[in-house]
Amino acid sequence: MRYFTLKLRKTNTFYCLLACPLLGFPLGSAFAQAPAPTQSYEVYQKSPVHELARKLITEVERPNTGAPFNTLKQDINAVFNSVPAVLKTVDALNALDAQKEQAFAGFLPKVSVTVGAGKTDQTQTTYRSDGNQNNRALTATQTLFDFGTTIGAYQAAGSRYTAGQHSMYNQRNDVLLKLLSSTLDVQRARKSYQFSVGYVDTRKDFLSRMKEKESLGATSKLDITRAETKVAEATDEMVSNAKQVDIASSTYRELFGKAPNFKESTYQLPFVDLKKLANPEDVIQNLRTYKELESVANAARSDYVAARGKLFGSLNLETNNSRNSNPPLTPTTVNTVQVVYRVDVFNGFAQTEKARELFSKQSESVFEKERLKRDLVKKLDNAKANFQAARDSLQARLNFLKGSQATDIATRELFFFGKASLTDVFKAQEDYFMAAQKLVNAEFDHKVAYFSLLALYEQLLEQFDLGS
Q: What are phi and psi of 262, to 5 degrees?
């Protein structure tokens, strides 16, 4: 009792604050009737970190408060067709188109011209050559029948071109998803960094309030040291988040070719009625990924037909017109038309083994189609499950942040009135910051899961008018 009396003389103001709740006065009246070593309840609620938390809660609860989806769409469309990965697909498709035209040339006649001139020293009993000689020849060849070699090669080239079209779509789909993920990662990193800055400010502010208490003799040096340690801990977290902003910005610059200069903290999502997304089993055969492999399988089958036909040679129509001049002899002209059957009787079994190799590839592609079908079903099921989990997690973490925010504010007030320990304050601050970071991650994980689901169902490019 004596100790309490002595301390009361030294710190009368502080212990008046402690007595107010015991005497039935509300907490607010303590601040009104005596100098308080801390901010008021209302002032602390309006601190930057709490404003950030309220803004985040609003964004999650009312997604239509974000920047319009068209803003994101315009930013993406402005750079999409200049991304190297997209430009590469165009050239790759042009190369496949050239191969298709090259294969079509097998149906057309081949025409060649030969022209020669030179000196010939020729002596016979009846004349002597003057040494000048020249000749010209025109040859045309048309394949009549080649046991499926030409048509097989052409169909294989056509199937590869079709596969290239599907592959181009899939690659554009992947590039768009990467651009979106990169944009969202920049927003995520920036928002996490803002919260970490607010976390540092909160702990610095709390440290200054603790020093005020120390000046009143109401706390110890150890408590000040603990508060200073917590400031250092929060600063380390802020540095780590600043690094994540730099990493996300570097990835963005690599994909977009420029630094991220957008100011939007979040975007609205395009509306797609997810209930109308077909059962994975029903949609598989219409997906470009499956159609690509189907075209590759068709190309393998046509390659085998071409290789097998080559074993039996070809039947050709050949015409030739040649003129030879060797003065003083009269120039000679020869015209020939003939049907020629030509086949390699023995070439070391190279063509036979080539046909056997292509037959194995054809069989392999059939099994690969079934494997891909099962893999796509799994991916679609997982994507739907991931999206549902992300949506549920978003709601759970929203409630977590709301509760942690209220707990942080209340615990801070209780501490300054002696109703909570310093450990309780630090724990409430840590839970609050962790809840904010988790909700930030959940917000963007939900958006990434949404875009990933649309990409797998091949509806993402269409939302950005990039489907062609």
A: -75, 150
Please list, in sequence order, all residues whose beta carbon lies within 8 angstroms of the beta carbon of residue 113, skipping any fewer than 6 positions away.
Answer: 136, 137, 138, 139
Structure tokens at 197: 């800055």
In one-letter notation, the amino acid at residue 179 is L
71 vs 28, 66, 398, CA distance in Å? Answer: 46, 10, 26
For tokens 């049907």, name the residue: 339
CA dihedral 147, 149, 155, 158 (to 10 degrees): -160
Q: Each residue of 403-423: pLDDT tens digit? A: 999 999 999 889 888 899 999
pTM for the predicted model, two decimal places: 0.81
CA 5 to centroid of chain Cα atoms = 69
Which run of H or of E encompasses 316? strand 314-325
Residue 59 CB-half CA count within 13 A: 25
Cα–Cα–Cα angle for 115, 117, 120, rounded to 5 degrees: 140
In this prediction, residues 219-243 reach a mean pLDDT of 93
Burial (CB count within 10 angstroms: exposed 0-12, middle 13-18, buried 19+), residue 386: middle
CA atoms within 13 A on the CB side of 143: 17
**In whole angstroms, what is the distance from residue 271 CA to residue 68 CA?**
12
Contacts of 439 (CB under 8 A, 6+ apart): 56, 57, 60, 394, 397, 398, 400, 401
Residue with tokens 């054809």: 362
123-144: burial string, b at 16+ Cβ within 10 Å, e else: eeeeeebeeebebbeeeeeebe
Which residue from 227, 259, 247, 235 is spatially nearest to 421, judged by alpha carbons? Answer: 227
Q: 250-278: buried (b, 16+ CB within 10 Å) or exposed (e) per residue?
A: ebbeebbeeebeeeebbbbbbebeeeebe
pLDDT digits (tens, 9 = 90+) for 15-63: 443 444 434 444 443 333 334 444 555 666 678 888 999 999 999 999 9
Q: Which two tokens stand for residue 195?
A: 């919260």
The alpha carbons of the chain give a radius of gyration, in whole angstroms, of: 40
